[in-house]
Specification:
Strand 5 (115-121), helix 5 and strand 6 form a beta-alpha-beta unit. The chain is of the alpha/beta class. It has a six-stranded mixed β-sheet with strand order 2-3-1-4-5-6, with helices on both faces. The two termini are 26 Å apart. Helix content is 33%, strand content 26%.
């Protein structure tokens, strides 16, 4: 299929602290691969993926923004034109959860009216869990967004992340 068969192209920005699984989520979704080793994102990366959501073919432009604090100035330009933001944290590292409101503040500065999805990642590490599902749902309410738990490693709910955020974007567009 060529690009003319798409109903829309949506830009989605994936943000969160370093090593929470942003790159792994995007890689798993766009290629099916999972990388065990951590490689720090410098600046930003992006990928495209075609997705059928509720019988509408959309093209997603997914941006992976570096999570380190020193990259804040670099990140600001990459929010431009985003329709949705996926906030992701690591359920085994409470500090990554505690930093979500800061990520929301940063995103709201650049894209005030976009769809939001909060993603709790690494749920396969049950014994190391430091943030409960209930806390995640409560945080999603504060963000005025939707909540989803994933295990990128186990490929659980990975595609759902992008279907849910796309549905939220389409709802906001109407």
């Amino acid at each position: 299929m060529d690009d003319r068969s798409f109903t829309r192209i949506y830009k989605i920005v994936v943000v969160g602290s370093g090593a929470v699984g942003k790159t792994s989520l995007i890689l798993r979704f766009t290629t099916g691969a999972f990388r065990e080793s951590y490689i720090r994102t410098l600046g930003a990366g992006f990928a495209f993926k075609n997705l059928n959501v509720d019988n509408r073919l959309v093209k997603l432009q997914i941006w992976d923004l570096a999570g380190q604090p020193e990259m804040k100035k670099v990140r600001s330009n990459f929010y431009t034109g985003a329709s949705g933001v996926v906030f992701i944290y690591d359920v085994t590292r409470r500090e990554t959860f505690d930093e979500i409101l800061g990520w929301k503040k940063e995103a709201k500065t650049h894209v005030p009216n976009c769809a939001c999805l909060l993603v709790a990642n690494k749920t396969d590490l049950v014994q190391d869990r430091a943030v409960t599902e209930a806390e995640g749902k409560e945080m999603a309410e504060k963000l005025n967004g939707t909540f989803l738990e994933t295990s990128v490693k186990m490929n659980e709910n990975v595609e759902d992340v992008f279907k849910v955020i796309t549905r939220e974007i389409m709802k906001n567009a109407n």
